Amino acid sequence: MVTGLGLVTPLGTGTEANWDALVAGRSGVRPITRFDAGTLPARIAGEVPDFDPERFLDRREARKMDVFIQYAVAAAQMAMDDAQLAAPLAQPERVGVIIGVGMGGLATLEDCFPALVERNFRRVSPFMIPRLIPNMAAGHVAMRFGARGPNYATTSACASGAHAVGDAFALIREGRQDVMLAGGAEAPVCLLGVGGFSAMRALATSFNEEPARASRPFDAKREGFVIAEGAGVLVLEELGHARRRGARIHAELAGYGASCDAYHMTQPSPEGEGAAECMALALADAGLAPEDVGYINAHGTGTPFNDEAETLAVKRVFGGHAHRLAISSTKSMTGHSLGAAGTIEAAYTVLALARGTLPPTINLDEPDPACDLDYVPHTARRVAIRAALSNSFGFGGTNATLAFRVLDE
To answer: Annotated catalytic, 336?
Structure first.
Protein backbone atom coordinates (compact mmCIF):
# COMPACT_ATOMS: atom_id res chain seq x y z
CA MET A 1 0.00 0.00 0.00
CA VAL A 2 1.16 3.55 -0.69
CA THR A 3 0.72 5.53 2.53
CA GLY A 4 3.14 8.41 1.97
CA LEU A 5 4.32 10.64 -0.89
CA GLY A 6 7.24 13.08 -1.02
CA LEU A 7 8.23 15.13 -4.07
CA VAL A 8 11.01 17.54 -5.00
CA THR A 9 10.80 18.40 -8.70
CA PRO A 10 11.06 21.26 -11.20
CA LEU A 11 7.37 21.87 -10.44
CA GLY A 12 8.14 22.60 -6.79
CA THR A 13 8.71 21.04 -3.39
CA GLY A 14 5.82 19.07 -1.91
CA THR A 15 2.81 17.17 -3.21
CA GLU A 16 0.43 20.12 -3.52
CA ALA A 17 2.90 22.32 -5.41
CA ASN A 18 3.45 19.49 -7.87
CA TRP A 19 -0.22 18.65 -8.25
CA ASP A 20 -1.24 22.27 -8.81
CA ALA A 21 1.33 22.63 -11.60
CA LEU A 22 0.40 19.29 -13.18
CA VAL A 23 -3.32 19.97 -13.46
CA ALA A 24 -2.61 23.50 -14.71
CA GLY A 25 -0.29 22.12 -17.42
CA ARG A 26 2.53 24.35 -16.20
CA SER A 27 6.10 23.63 -17.29
CA GLY A 28 9.05 23.56 -14.91
CA VAL A 29 11.62 23.86 -17.71
CA ARG A 30 13.67 27.07 -17.57
CA PRO A 31 17.05 28.50 -18.61
CA ILE A 32 19.90 26.88 -16.70
CA THR A 33 21.05 28.97 -13.73
CA ARG A 34 23.29 26.40 -11.97
CA PHE A 35 26.27 27.14 -14.24
CA ASP A 36 27.11 29.04 -17.43
CA ALA A 37 25.64 26.91 -20.22
CA GLY A 38 26.32 29.48 -22.94
CA THR A 39 28.65 27.25 -24.93
CA LEU A 40 26.32 24.25 -24.94
CA PRO A 41 23.69 23.42 -27.58
CA ALA A 42 21.11 22.76 -24.82
CA ARG A 43 20.88 25.66 -22.36
CA ILE A 44 17.65 24.74 -20.57
CA ALA A 45 16.76 22.22 -17.87
CA GLY A 46 14.22 21.24 -15.28
CA GLU A 47 15.95 22.73 -12.23
CA VAL A 48 14.25 22.49 -8.84
CA PRO A 49 13.17 26.05 -8.02
CA ASP A 50 13.80 27.70 -4.67
CA PHE A 51 14.90 24.52 -2.88
CA ASP A 52 16.12 25.29 0.63
CA PRO A 53 17.95 22.32 2.16
CA GLU A 54 17.80 23.97 5.58
CA ARG A 55 14.06 23.28 5.66
CA PHE A 56 15.05 19.65 6.10
CA LEU A 57 18.69 19.61 7.24
CA ASP A 58 20.95 21.69 9.41
CA ARG A 59 23.64 23.58 7.51
CA ARG A 60 26.58 21.43 8.59
CA GLU A 61 24.73 18.25 7.66
CA ALA A 62 23.71 19.60 4.25
CA ARG A 63 27.32 20.50 3.40
CA LYS A 64 28.27 16.82 3.65
CA MET A 65 25.74 15.87 0.96
CA ASP A 66 25.59 16.24 -2.79
CA VAL A 67 22.38 17.88 -4.00
CA PHE A 68 20.86 14.55 -5.07
CA ILE A 69 21.17 13.33 -1.48
CA GLN A 70 19.60 16.52 -0.13
CA TYR A 71 16.66 16.02 -2.48
CA ALA A 72 16.26 12.40 -1.38
CA VAL A 73 16.27 13.29 2.32
CA ALA A 74 13.75 16.08 1.76
CA ALA A 75 11.41 13.83 -0.25
CA ALA A 76 11.72 11.06 2.35
CA GLN A 77 10.89 13.46 5.18
CA MET A 78 7.78 14.67 3.37
CA ALA A 79 6.73 11.10 2.59
CA MET A 80 7.14 10.05 6.22
CA ASP A 81 5.21 13.11 7.38
CA ASP A 82 2.44 12.25 4.91
CA ALA A 83 2.36 8.67 6.22
CA GLN A 84 2.41 9.97 9.81
CA LEU A 85 5.45 7.89 10.64
CA ALA A 86 8.34 9.25 12.69
CA ALA A 87 11.46 8.22 14.52
CA PRO A 88 11.96 6.36 16.73
CA LEU A 89 10.42 3.54 14.73
CA ALA A 90 8.65 0.83 16.70
CA GLN A 91 10.39 -2.01 14.81
CA PRO A 92 13.30 -0.42 12.93
CA GLU A 93 14.57 -3.74 11.57
CA ARG A 94 11.23 -4.09 9.70
CA VAL A 95 11.70 -0.77 7.86
CA GLY A 96 14.02 -0.55 4.85
CA VAL A 97 15.14 2.03 2.31
CA ILE A 98 15.85 1.71 -1.42
CA ILE A 99 16.63 4.86 -3.40
CA GLY A 100 17.31 4.54 -7.12
CA VAL A 101 20.04 6.80 -8.53
CA GLY A 102 21.20 6.79 -12.11
CA MET A 103 24.23 9.09 -12.07
CA GLY A 104 25.16 9.89 -8.46
CA GLY A 105 27.05 13.02 -7.40
CA LEU A 106 28.13 14.42 -10.75
CA ALA A 107 28.43 17.96 -9.40
CA THR A 108 30.65 16.73 -6.56
CA LEU A 109 32.90 14.97 -9.07
CA GLU A 110 33.01 18.11 -11.20
CA ASP A 111 33.92 20.26 -8.20
CA CYS A 112 36.57 17.99 -6.72
CA PHE A 113 38.38 16.60 -9.74
CA PRO A 114 40.27 19.80 -10.69
CA ALA A 115 41.71 20.08 -7.18
CA LEU A 116 42.93 16.50 -7.41
CA VAL A 117 44.54 17.00 -10.82
CA GLU A 118 45.96 20.47 -10.34
CA ARG A 119 47.14 20.13 -6.74
CA ASN A 120 47.08 16.81 -4.90
CA PHE A 121 44.73 14.58 -2.96
CA ARG A 122 45.21 16.62 0.23
CA ARG A 123 43.20 19.44 -1.35
CA VAL A 124 40.20 17.17 -2.01
CA SER A 125 37.30 17.21 0.42
CA PRO A 126 37.19 14.11 2.66
CA PHE A 127 33.46 14.10 1.94
CA MET A 128 33.98 13.65 -1.80
CA ILE A 129 33.34 9.90 -1.89
CA PRO A 130 30.38 9.90 0.54
CA ARG A 131 28.82 12.74 -1.48
CA LEU A 132 29.48 11.01 -4.79
CA ILE A 133 28.42 7.38 -4.44
CA PRO A 134 24.80 6.54 -5.34
CA ASN A 135 23.89 4.47 -2.27
CA MET A 136 24.45 7.37 0.13
CA ALA A 137 20.97 8.75 -0.59
CA ALA A 138 19.47 5.60 0.90
CA GLY A 139 22.09 5.61 3.65
CA HIS A 140 21.29 9.12 4.81
CA VAL A 141 17.53 8.46 4.72
CA ALA A 142 18.01 5.33 6.86
CA MET A 143 20.16 7.20 9.37
CA ARG A 144 17.60 9.96 9.63
CA PHE A 145 14.81 7.61 10.65
CA GLY A 146 16.79 4.75 12.19
CA ALA A 147 15.57 2.29 9.54
CA ARG A 148 17.63 -0.90 9.96
CA GLY A 149 16.11 -3.05 7.24
CA PRO A 150 17.58 -3.57 3.73
CA ASN A 151 19.32 -0.46 2.47
CA TYR A 152 20.73 0.02 -1.03
CA ALA A 153 20.55 1.86 -4.34
CA THR A 154 19.17 0.56 -7.60
CA THR A 155 21.13 1.89 -10.55
CA SER A 156 19.47 1.18 -13.88
CA ALA A 157 19.59 4.50 -15.72
CA CYS A 158 16.15 6.05 -16.20
CA ALA A 159 14.40 3.04 -14.65
CA SER A 160 16.31 3.30 -11.35
CA GLY A 161 13.49 4.84 -9.30
CA ALA A 162 10.87 2.46 -10.63
CA HIS A 163 13.10 -0.55 -9.93
CA ALA A 164 13.59 0.74 -6.37
CA VAL A 165 9.81 0.78 -5.86
CA GLY A 166 9.45 -2.66 -7.42
CA ASP A 167 12.17 -4.18 -5.25
CA ALA A 168 10.64 -2.61 -2.13
CA PHE A 169 7.23 -3.96 -3.10
CA ALA A 170 8.68 -7.45 -3.43
CA LEU A 171 10.30 -7.30 0.02
CA ILE A 172 6.98 -6.41 1.63
CA ARG A 173 5.01 -9.00 -0.32
CA GLU A 174 7.50 -11.69 0.66
CA GLY A 175 6.88 -10.82 4.32
CA ARG A 176 10.46 -9.67 4.91
CA GLN A 177 9.58 -6.02 5.67
CA ASP A 178 6.56 -4.11 6.93
CA VAL A 179 7.48 -0.65 5.66
CA MET A 180 9.79 0.52 2.87
CA LEU A 181 10.85 3.98 1.83
CA ALA A 182 11.31 3.61 -1.91
CA GLY A 183 12.34 6.35 -4.26
CA GLY A 184 14.65 7.90 -6.79
CA ALA A 185 16.94 10.94 -6.71
CA GLU A 186 19.10 12.74 -9.25
CA ALA A 187 20.96 16.05 -9.68
CA PRO A 188 22.60 15.97 -13.14
CA VAL A 189 22.17 19.66 -14.02
CA CYS A 190 25.88 20.49 -14.11
CA LEU A 191 28.41 20.88 -16.89
CA LEU A 192 29.31 17.17 -16.82
CA GLY A 193 25.69 16.05 -17.02
CA VAL A 194 24.37 18.49 -19.59
CA GLY A 195 27.59 18.41 -21.60
CA GLY A 196 27.66 14.62 -21.66
CA PHE A 197 24.09 14.24 -22.86
CA SER A 198 24.65 17.08 -25.35
CA ALA A 199 27.56 15.12 -26.81
CA MET A 200 25.18 12.18 -27.32
CA ARG A 201 22.74 14.49 -29.13
CA ALA A 202 20.06 13.28 -26.76
CA LEU A 203 18.77 16.70 -25.65
CA ALA A 204 16.30 19.15 -27.15
CA THR A 205 18.19 22.15 -28.54
CA SER A 206 15.75 24.17 -30.66
CA PHE A 207 13.76 25.79 -27.84
CA ASN A 208 16.45 27.52 -25.76
CA GLU A 209 14.51 30.78 -26.12
CA GLU A 210 11.17 29.10 -25.34
CA PRO A 211 12.04 26.56 -22.65
CA ALA A 212 8.47 25.74 -21.65
CA ARG A 213 7.87 24.39 -25.18
CA ALA A 214 10.97 22.21 -25.34
CA SER A 215 9.74 18.91 -23.87
CA ARG A 216 7.39 17.55 -26.53
CA PRO A 217 6.55 13.87 -26.03
CA PHE A 218 4.68 12.26 -28.94
CA ASP A 219 4.78 15.49 -30.97
CA ALA A 220 6.05 15.46 -34.56
CA LYS A 221 8.60 18.19 -33.71
CA ARG A 222 10.12 16.39 -30.73
CA GLU A 223 13.89 16.17 -30.95
CA GLY A 224 15.14 14.98 -27.57
CA PHE A 225 14.57 15.14 -23.86
CA VAL A 226 15.07 18.03 -21.45
CA ILE A 227 17.41 17.09 -18.61
CA ALA A 228 15.99 17.61 -15.12
CA GLU A 229 16.60 16.91 -11.44
CA GLY A 230 14.69 16.08 -8.28
CA ALA A 231 13.54 13.23 -6.08
CA GLY A 232 10.44 11.24 -5.27
CA VAL A 233 9.90 8.91 -2.33
CA LEU A 234 6.95 6.63 -1.57
CA VAL A 235 6.20 5.03 1.77
CA LEU A 236 5.08 1.48 0.99
CA GLU A 237 3.41 -0.48 3.74
CA GLU A 238 1.97 -3.95 4.27
CA LEU A 239 -1.82 -3.68 4.35
CA GLY A 240 -2.34 -5.14 7.83
CA HIS A 241 0.38 -2.93 9.27
CA ALA A 242 -1.18 0.16 7.69
CA ARG A 243 -4.65 -0.71 8.94
CA ARG A 244 -3.54 -1.45 12.48
CA ARG A 245 -2.20 2.05 12.86
CA GLY A 246 -5.09 3.70 10.98
CA ALA A 247 -2.98 4.96 8.08
CA ARG A 248 -4.49 6.71 5.09
CA ILE A 249 -3.96 4.61 1.97
CA HIS A 250 -3.46 6.58 -1.24
CA ALA A 251 -3.54 3.54 -3.52
CA GLU A 252 -2.49 -0.08 -3.76
CA LEU A 253 0.74 -0.99 -5.51
CA ALA A 254 -0.55 -4.18 -7.09
CA GLY A 255 2.06 -5.37 -9.59
CA TYR A 256 5.56 -4.96 -10.93
CA GLY A 257 7.19 -5.97 -14.20
CA ALA A 258 10.84 -5.82 -15.26
CA SER A 259 12.50 -6.80 -18.54
CA CYS A 260 15.39 -6.02 -20.86
CA ASP A 261 15.41 -5.25 -24.58
CA ALA A 262 18.91 -6.74 -25.04
CA TYR A 263 19.08 -4.64 -28.20
CA HIS A 264 21.16 -1.43 -28.02
CA MET A 265 23.07 0.77 -25.56
CA THR A 266 20.73 3.74 -25.82
CA GLN A 267 17.91 2.98 -28.27
CA PRO A 268 14.82 0.88 -27.47
CA SER A 269 13.97 -2.15 -29.54
CA PRO A 270 12.09 -0.59 -32.48
CA GLU A 271 8.98 -2.76 -32.16
CA GLY A 272 8.75 -2.23 -28.40
CA GLU A 273 9.06 -5.91 -27.48
CA GLY A 274 10.85 -5.35 -24.16
CA ALA A 275 8.51 -2.58 -23.03
CA ALA A 276 5.51 -4.70 -24.00
CA GLU A 277 6.80 -7.68 -22.04
CA CYS A 278 7.38 -5.44 -19.01
CA MET A 279 3.82 -4.06 -19.06
CA ALA A 280 2.36 -7.54 -19.57
CA LEU A 281 4.34 -8.84 -16.59
CA ALA A 282 3.08 -6.01 -14.38
CA LEU A 283 -0.53 -6.70 -15.40
CA ALA A 284 -0.18 -10.42 -14.72
CA ASP A 285 1.51 -9.76 -11.38
CA ALA A 286 -1.37 -7.49 -10.37
CA GLY A 287 -4.07 -9.83 -11.65
CA LEU A 288 -5.34 -7.11 -13.97
CA ALA A 289 -6.79 -7.57 -17.44
CA PRO A 290 -5.80 -4.98 -20.04
CA GLU A 291 -9.37 -3.64 -20.00
CA ASP A 292 -9.06 -2.87 -16.27
CA VAL A 293 -6.47 -0.17 -16.90
CA GLY A 294 -7.71 3.36 -17.53
CA TYR A 295 -4.46 5.34 -17.57
CA ILE A 296 -0.76 4.99 -18.29
CA ASN A 297 1.85 7.48 -17.13
CA ALA A 298 4.16 6.98 -20.07
CA HIS A 299 7.93 6.99 -20.07
CA GLY A 300 7.38 9.56 -22.85
CA THR A 301 10.79 11.23 -23.07
CA GLY A 302 10.23 13.26 -26.22
CA THR A 303 12.95 11.42 -28.14
CA PRO A 304 11.94 10.20 -31.61
CA PHE A 305 12.65 6.49 -31.11
CA ASN A 306 11.37 6.11 -27.55
CA ASP A 307 7.92 7.61 -28.01
CA GLU A 308 7.19 5.57 -31.12
CA ALA A 309 8.44 2.33 -29.55
CA GLU A 310 6.37 2.91 -26.41
CA THR A 311 3.27 3.52 -28.53
CA LEU A 312 3.85 0.24 -30.36
CA ALA A 313 4.38 -1.55 -27.04
CA VAL A 314 1.07 -0.26 -25.66
CA LYS A 315 -0.71 -1.52 -28.78
CA ARG A 316 0.95 -4.93 -28.43
CA VAL A 317 -0.26 -5.34 -24.86
CA PHE A 318 -3.65 -3.65 -24.94
CA GLY A 319 -4.87 -4.45 -28.45
CA GLY A 320 -8.12 -2.63 -29.24
CA HIS A 321 -8.25 -1.19 -25.73
CA ALA A 322 -5.10 0.85 -26.49
CA HIS A 323 -7.22 3.45 -28.29
CA ARG A 324 -9.54 3.74 -25.29
CA LEU A 325 -6.71 4.28 -22.82
CA ALA A 326 -5.68 7.69 -21.56
CA ILE A 327 -1.89 8.10 -21.69
CA SER A 328 0.16 11.12 -20.70
CA SER A 329 3.77 12.08 -20.31
CA THR A 330 4.33 14.30 -17.31
CA LYS A 331 7.90 14.76 -18.56
CA SER A 332 6.35 17.33 -20.88
CA MET A 333 6.18 19.50 -17.73
CA THR A 334 9.03 18.25 -15.53
CA GLY A 335 11.63 17.30 -18.09
CA HIS A 336 13.47 14.01 -17.57
CA SER A 337 15.05 13.55 -14.15
CA LEU A 338 16.77 10.28 -15.09
CA GLY A 339 17.02 8.00 -12.03
CA ALA A 340 14.42 10.03 -10.13
CA ALA A 341 11.82 9.98 -12.90
CA GLY A 342 10.35 6.55 -12.18
CA THR A 343 9.35 7.38 -8.61
CA ILE A 344 8.23 10.92 -9.34
CA GLU A 345 5.94 9.57 -12.05
CA ALA A 346 4.76 6.72 -9.82
CA ALA A 347 3.69 9.37 -7.30
CA TYR A 348 1.88 11.29 -10.04
CA THR A 349 0.10 8.08 -11.05
CA VAL A 350 -1.02 7.49 -7.46
CA LEU A 351 -2.33 11.06 -7.28
CA ALA A 352 -4.21 10.62 -10.57
CA LEU A 353 -5.94 7.54 -9.14
CA ALA A 354 -6.67 9.11 -5.78
CA ARG A 355 -7.91 12.46 -7.12
CA GLY A 356 -9.69 11.39 -10.29
CA THR A 357 -7.75 13.71 -12.58
CA LEU A 358 -5.31 12.76 -15.33
CA PRO A 359 -2.35 15.10 -15.93
CA PRO A 360 -1.98 16.31 -19.52
CA THR A 361 0.77 16.03 -22.09
CA ILE A 362 1.59 19.65 -22.88
CA ASN A 363 3.25 20.82 -26.12
CA LEU A 364 1.45 18.14 -28.13
CA ASP A 365 0.66 20.57 -30.93
CA GLU A 366 1.24 18.35 -33.95
CA PRO A 367 0.88 14.66 -33.03
CA ASP A 368 3.27 12.32 -34.80
CA PRO A 369 1.18 10.05 -37.08
CA ALA A 370 3.11 7.08 -35.62
CA CYS A 371 1.95 8.12 -32.13
CA ASP A 372 -1.80 7.87 -32.61
CA LEU A 373 -3.17 7.11 -29.14
CA ASP A 374 -4.93 9.37 -26.62
CA TYR A 375 -2.14 11.30 -24.90
CA VAL A 376 -4.43 13.72 -22.98
CA PRO A 377 -3.18 16.74 -24.94
CA HIS A 378 -2.78 20.16 -23.32
CA THR A 379 -5.47 19.96 -20.62
CA ALA A 380 -5.94 17.80 -17.53
CA ARG A 381 -8.94 15.48 -17.65
CA ARG A 382 -11.38 14.73 -14.85
CA VAL A 383 -12.12 11.01 -14.95
CA ALA A 384 -12.34 8.30 -12.31
CA ILE A 385 -10.09 5.34 -13.01
CA ARG A 386 -9.58 2.14 -11.04
CA ALA A 387 -6.15 1.01 -12.24
CA ALA A 388 -3.12 2.61 -13.87
CA LEU A 389 0.42 1.82 -15.00
CA SER A 390 3.62 3.85 -14.72
CA ASN A 391 6.35 3.06 -17.27
CA SER A 392 10.09 3.67 -16.95
CA PHE A 393 12.60 2.60 -19.60
CA GLY A 394 16.35 3.24 -19.53
CA PHE A 395 19.63 3.08 -21.40
CA GLY A 396 20.88 -0.46 -21.69
CA GLY A 397 17.36 -1.58 -22.59
CA THR A 398 16.23 -1.81 -18.97
CA ASN A 399 12.46 -1.62 -18.39
CA ALA A 400 10.21 -1.31 -15.33
CA THR A 401 6.43 -1.02 -15.02
CA LEU A 402 4.46 -0.43 -11.83
CA ALA A 403 0.75 -1.23 -11.61
CA PHE A 404 -1.43 0.70 -9.17
CA ARG A 405 -5.11 0.44 -8.37
CA VAL A 406 -7.70 1.89 -6.07
CA LEU A 407 -7.91 -0.25 -2.94
CA ASP A 408 -11.18 -2.14 -2.65
CA GLU A 409 -12.23 -1.91 0.97
So the answer is: yes
